[in-house]
Amino acid sequence: MALEDAVTLPTYAKPPVALVRGQGTHVWDTEGREYLDFYGGHCVALLGHCPPRVVDAIRQQAGELLFYSNAVYSPVRAQAAAALAALAPDGLGRVFWCNSGTEANETALKLARATTGRHRVVAFSGGFHGRTLGSLAATWGDGYHAPYRSALPETTWVPFGWEGAVDGALAGHDVAALILEPMQSMAGVTEAPAHFYQAIREICDQTGTVLIFDEVQTGVGRTGAFTYGEHVGVTPDLVTLAKSLGAGVPVGAVLVSDAIAATVQPGDQGTTFGGGMLAMAAVRAALGQLVDDGLMARAVQVHARLADGLGEISAVAEVRGRGCLMGVSLDRPAKPAAAALRQRGVIVGTAGPPDTLRLMPPLTTTDAEVDDFLGRLADVLDESA
Fold it and tell me: Where are the alpha helices (DSSP H) in 88-211?
């Protein structure tokens, strides 16, 4: 911990824990202490830690060809793209590979501007889309923007869940993209009614605006469907994915509509490491396990068991979210509860609202592990009552 603090730039206020091993829903620190992990390193560990199918695929690929850029064809890249396109909503069958969620959002915003010939972007209060300059401009919060404001593209902000505000913001027919997290994770795992998403799809169609769903956290089956739009009957023009996509290996992707894909020419977009062989082997294996083991249905089951158990804890005021992405509002501040859980061997997240815990367990979480978590949470909340 001292060495890392001495030689790296600070990013987060880290607890005094150094993790060295993981398996399934559990991780271990340098002292040998075991933790039940319901955070997954920022919503990444979709299949748990070190899923054997993904680990084996990476090992095999590393021994065959560690890397070559997408300046050449690659069987593993083609197979990963075909597997992803097969799970994508109809009409979103073309894939752009990159390395992270913010890169995916940068690419989506660029594609929208290039396709429409417009420059304005409309985003929602409470949304988080990344920290590179284009994505940062669409991320809500003065604290993120302050050091870079003069370099950020202009963004028009509208309240999340209010279609009337979207209608007004897009009325001039001069907006390139409307970007949103369909479920706002950092804002406390909040959703809007289904009619909101359906209305903004209609408004974007009427105004020629590209609709981008940032599914960096909600995508890849975590909410019980491969993409959130399937829950509300809406297909956006672009969907961005990352986090869970590589089951622990850094990778991002943009699902691109057929209409937008038809406008893209060689040289319009580029990436060196996007679509690298190791990441593609991980994606191919992860998507295979997601389908073969019926894990999207399992996400719904995990959610139901957690929600039922949380409803029995008096200190829990509200449970939000879908599948294995949940926000839990408490009747007290969440950060002390999260710290107390860590002392009891459980890792969870918090969110912007100070009363909210975020739960992002793997889709492979067992009923026994759900019950174990609920028991430890109840004990922590009883002790701090």
Answer: 101-116, 133-137, 142-145, 163-170, 194-207
Alpha carbon separation from 95 to 107, 222, 240, 249, 252 (Å, rounded): 11, 20, 10, 18, 10
Both structure tokens of 329: 């509002």
CA separation for the pair 358, 337 (Å, rounded): 12
> In which band, very low, low, confident or very high, does the pLDDT at 200 lie, cut at 50, 70 and 90?
very high
pLDDT in tens, 91-103: 999 999 999 999 9
Q: State the amino acid at position 240 in one-letter form.
A: T
Contact 49, 287 (CB under 8 A): no
Residue burial 302-335, b: 16+ Cβ < 10 Å; e: rest: bbebbeebbeebebbeebbbbbbbbbbbbeeebe
Q: Give the tens place of pLDDT for each residue, 36-85.
A: 999 999 999 999 999 999 999 999 999 999 999 999 999 999 999 999 99
pLDDT digits (tens, 9 = 90+) for 312-344: 999 999 999 999 999 999 999 999 999 999 999
Closest by Cα among 198, 189, 187, 188 to 230: 198
Q: For 146, phi and psi rounded to 5 degrees?
A: -50, -50
In angstroms, the CA 144 to CA 230 distance is 31
For the CA atoms of the chain, what is the radius of gyration? 21
Pick the closest to residue 360 from 7, 10, 47, 79 (CA basis).
47
pLDDT higher than threshold 90 for residue 345: yes
- CB atoms under 10 Å from CB of 143, counted, come to 7
Continuous segment of H or E residues that includes residue 82: helix 75-87
What DSSP string runs through 39-77? SHHHHT-TT-BS-HHHHHHHHHHHHH-----TTS--HHH
d(CA 47, CA 100): 18
189-198: pLDDT as tens digits? 999 999 999 9
With tokens 């007290």, the residue in question is 332
